[in-house]
Amino acid sequence: MELAPENPRLPEMLAEELWRVAGSELVEVSRAEFAEALETIGARDNYGLDPEKQANERQRETFWRGLHLEELAIARGCALGRESAWRRFLAQYREQLTRAAIEMTGSAALGEELVSAIYSELFGLTEREGRRWSPLLRYSGRGSLMGWLRAVLAQRRVDQYRKIGRETELGEIEPAAAVSEQIEPKKLGDLRVALKMTLSEASAEERFLLSAYYLDQHTLHEMSRVLRVHEATISRKLKRATERLRKQLLRTLKARGLSRRAAEETLGTDPRDVDINLRKLLQKSAGAPIPDKEGEG
Amino acid sequence: MNRNLQLGIHPDADKISVFVEGAATAREREKMLAHLAECAECRKAVFLIQPHEEPQRVTATPEKGWMWRWLVPVGLPAALACGLIAVLVYIRPHGVSKTPQPMASIRPPETERPGPTAALSSNLEQGAPTANADRAPSINSEQVTGSAGRQDGLAAKAATNVSRQERPMASGLNLPTSKSEQATANVAPQKTGAAPSVVGGPVTDAARLSDGISTVTVSELPLNGRNFTELQQLQTADTKGAASQNALAGKKELPALQIQAASAQNETLAGISGRITDRTGAVIAGVTVTLRDATGKKRQSTTGTDGSFHLMQLPAGQYELTATASGFKTSQQSIELKPSELAMLQPVLDVGAASEVVEVAAGSSAVAVQTESANVSGQAVAEMTGAHRAITLPSGVGIAETVSHGKRFLSLDDAGNLFLSRNGGKKWKKVKPQWAGNAIRIELTSGSVSEAAAQKPKDETSGAAGEGAVFLLATDGGTVWSSKDGAHWHKQ
Asked: In CATH, what number does B269-391 get?
């Protein structure tokens, strides 16, 4: 990828040192190729700083040194089609990758199938703008290569699951339809509006916790592993979020003309109804604030 | 755009993995959470990435751990209190006998103005940590963090700025936790001072990290979170112990951290030990064992008469090990060494032309095999990979030296403790020192040593050193001890 002229270059001495530390020679990645990769990644991620900040020389150096350099060299070597890089990749990751795929699919056959699909992608069998393109070019070295591979596997698995299991999944949420008939349409409308207002004020983390816990029914333990905090912390945060949500909902409902008792009653409707509303409110996929797109590397 | 997932813009695998591994910046994390709250597919992917729970690893508790845990908070104050009570009991009868006064007349003044007893009890209060409990209610964890932060503003900054996701835990926990976090952050600058001993060797992640920190304040780091993760890794059982001692020791924080830094450095060194045999199980002497690190730097050793070789004091990292002997095929192995581990290898060399290469790749977590020689059978490959095992001594301290005879391994750690394994390194037991001072060197000799030869080890069948082979040990006091089984030692 061509760098914009204003992008700072990697100092030659540092480039040499990082190239050596990464063992790039062993995976047939030249100094220039490795330096280019580091510069691209640094510019793309703004050296780990917020977009409005400008990194100084020291911060850039710290960013580059903090990368998983050896794994980055292997990924680059593989993306460039170097045989020794692939040998190393297979030696280090083949078994782990297969194990992870089997874990995710819950079946050896499906796992093998998923892995072989991933391999063909990683080998760069797809073409972009007439050039061979491997998703390994997108690996930045900020996380581990195995973590990146797991993320690719998970994305492809979700895609498979979506293709196969959409009908089944939607079927699972039917019971609320019967219950909702018993609720006054006005009350349900008020609740929907109140929920929409309340949720729009909730923080990103709170909304994630609510979605993961109430919609996806993940356990506190699972959530704690994703957010890397203790499950007691998740429990406390969830409790705080739901309490705040409840108070806010009551306030909003009262503001819409309901008495305190009526507002309490509205909130006391079958939780599955609230759940449906939440699903509708939270589960809109458009407009997600992630600017990066896969495949730009 | 990720064309496979549902319509809309989704984070790519790199962004997701950076988030999942806790390496994202606060801004990136916020964006990711906002997206995950709304996107069921990405949320599902994020939960799928989590590896299945492995059974909890049982780590050996350091020998002195329980003593420190109990002696420092309970034992020392208790001992101090006992001593003072004894002094009191000793002094008071004498004092009373000299100026006999009725008890009723003594008591009221004691409460009103400080007499000798009151002075003693106030001393007791000042000396004993329990006295701090009087002031404790006014001190919450935040205040303590703040005051400690004044002592070391850099570390405090790091503890608060480094990783957003760790904050809830810190705020939810009590004083020792926040202290230990600070201690963890403090380790890095201390460690930097010790790191240059690895000059010229392959630079490990941790060493690189500490290099970065030596020149940049931690709070300045454009933290992608990973640096903090690395710092956390230094917070081993030992450092945790040291940190909790710091909480108790209060002002004695710096020396304790220096100890932490030293132990952290020891833990980065690893070793490789092994024995080379042919297909019949016979040991091969004179095999050239070459170890090449990721930078291409080589270290060489030659197997002794018992076919064993030892390469110690190695920084953790990826290595290529090559065993070459004339008349045998060359064997190559890829090894990943983790800090303070001793990799035990038992390469088996096949008879053949020296130019033929057998390549084996092995890691401590996963073992993947690739062979380039068509002559190697599947069974041979299994034997070779199965033979590789990485172990850690129960003390958790780095290994200084290891010698072996048969399945009997003797290992000396950096703290001077001696450990014995009778089953090829699977289980280790600390050898009770029968000598004064610390052991500094161990050796295996085939020469005859009178005292050792006179020994009759009880378990000869379970692999005690065979005919003529004797373990020797040198202490820092200049004495030499010998043993035939590694457990019973005799002074030379």
From this structure: 2.60.40.1120
Phi–psi pair at B59, nearest 5 degrees: -100, 140
What does pTM read for this prediction? 0.43
Report the gap between the CA of A10 and the closest CA in chain B (Å).
Answer: 16
Between chain A and chain B, how many beta carbons pairs sit less than 8 Å apart?
A: 254
State whether residue B314 is helix, strand or coil. strand
Residues of chain B with Cβ-Cβ distance to A227 below 8 Å are 165
Q: Is position A186 within any domain? A: yes
Minimal CA separation from A260 to chain B, in Å: 30
Domain residue limits at A123: 86-166
The answer to whether residues A283 and A215 touch, using CB atoms and an 8 Å cutoff, is yes
For chain A positions 81-110, those within 8 Å of chain B (CB to CB) are 87, 90-96, 99-100, 103-104
CB burial of residue B97 (10 Å; 0-12, 13-18, 19+): exposed
Beta-strand relationship, B330-337 and B317-324: antiparallel
DSSP H/E element including A161 = helix A145-171
Phi, psi of B311 (to 5 degrees): -130, 110
Return d(Cα B360, Cα B332) in angstroms, integer.
6
pLDDT digits (tens, 9 = 90+) for B170-227: 333 333 333 333 333 333 333 333 333 333 333 333 333 333 333 333 333 333 333 3
Alpha-helical (H) ranges within B71-131 are 76-98, 103-112, 116-127
Q: Tell me which residues of chain A, numbers 242 to 281, contact chain B at a CB-CB cutoff of 8 Å.
A: none
Cβ-Cβ contacts under 8 Å, B20 against chain A: 143, 147, 150-151, 226
Domain ranges of chain B: 1-53, 65-132, 139-267, 269-391, 401-491
Q: Which residue has the higher pLDDT, A80 or B199?
A: A80
Say yes or no: A113 and A49 in one domain. Answer: no
Tell me: ipTM over 0.85: no
Strand, coil or helix: B315? strand
Of B434, B426, B428, whose CA–CA distance to B489 is shortest?
B434
Which residue has 């407009």 as its token pair? A287
Distance of residue A55 Cα from the nearest chain B Cα, in angstroms: 8
- Count of structural domains within chain A: 3
Taking only residues 412 to 471 of chain B, the set having a beta carbon closer than 8 angstroms to any beta carbon of chain A reads none
Going by C-alpha positions, the residue among B478, B425, B436, B473 that lies closest to residue B452 is: B473
Answer for the pair B303, B276: CB distance below 8 angstroms, yes or no: yes
Q: Is B291 within 8 Å of B221 (Cβ atoms)?
A: no
Of A22, A48, A143, the CB nearest to B17: A143
The dihedral built from the CA positions of residue A155, A161, A162 and A163, taken in this order, carries a sign that is: positive
Tens of pLDDT, residues A17-74:
999 999 998 999 999 999 989 998 998 888 888 888 888 888 888 899 999 999 999 9
- Whether the CB-CB separation of B201 and B293 falls below 8 Å is answered with yes
Look at A142 and B370 and tell me if their CB atoms are within 8 Å.
no
Interface contact flag, B295 A20, Cβ < 8 Å = yes
